[in-house]
Amino acid sequence: ELEGLENTIDDAYAELRSLITDFRAPIDDDGIGLPETPPGPDPVTGEHIGMNIMQERAAKLNGELQYESDPDEGGTLIQLSFDMPRLEDLLKRRGIEVIEAVGSGEEGIKKVAELQPDIVLLDMRMPQMDGLMVLRQLRKNHPALKVVMLTTSTNDHDLLEALRAGARGYLLKDIEPDELVLAIREILAGKTVVAPELSSVLARFIQGEDGELQEDKSANPFSALTPREYEILTLLAEGQSNKVIARNLGISDGTVKLHVKAILRKLNVSSRITAAVMAVEHGIRASASNDS
């Protein structure tokens, strides 16, 4: 029996096989997205060499390099000007990197200068400096920075003051995580977003039904507007969209957009909503004539 076993070991054609049918190594990157066809390596600048090297290595292993990307879209870096670990975790799970969470307004201002986030989520109620003070300082130091008020305050005054100070969003803390992420994306795309629960508040001011925030009307911030710009501003105050304004005035959408940009620049505001609120607070109506 032993001799038979030895003969089997000596004469049998046995081999060990290791079969790998599929091997994947996913890598996430929060940098700027590549186009559908990645550019070749640039020997002068050294750019894009890494992708070329990875493709060569994959080919040597009879594999291939695949990637999914949103062209020209980078990662979203957020600073939370309050300490909410649960919110921070929810945002990270949805692909948004929270680079800092701070506990005071002064600390938030310093960290923005240091970290240069894409967007800041700011509370209205903070120690040392309230949210509006922090917002005004951030807008002064970083005019292009997008700041979103994320708060429990449903106070009408807080909402309008935040928009007038340059906030690009006013959201409530009980917002669903997916809705918050969507709002952040829209704000980064240039829109102004207000919590649906507060839309009626905004509508009251746009329609002029509430006079709580009336200012001294002797000052005329609209004197620099042309007659056409003033006319368009009155229509903005009615809540009309660019398309509706274009149709009513018999001009193109593009022309309306140019006028709106000029209005925002001359009024030193960041959104059409802020301009509309400002107009209503100064008593401007579509039926009013241009006294400027």
From TrEMBL:
Keyword match Ribonucleoprotein: no
Pfam families reported in the protein's UniProt record: GerE, Response_reg
SMART domains: HTH_LUXR, REC
Keywords, alphabetical: DNA-binding, Phosphoprotein, Transcription, Transcription regulation
Any one GO MF annotation of this record: DNA binding
GO biological process entries: phosphorelay signal transduction system; regulation of DNA-templated transcription
Protein name: Uncharacterized protein
Originating species: Cyprideis torosa
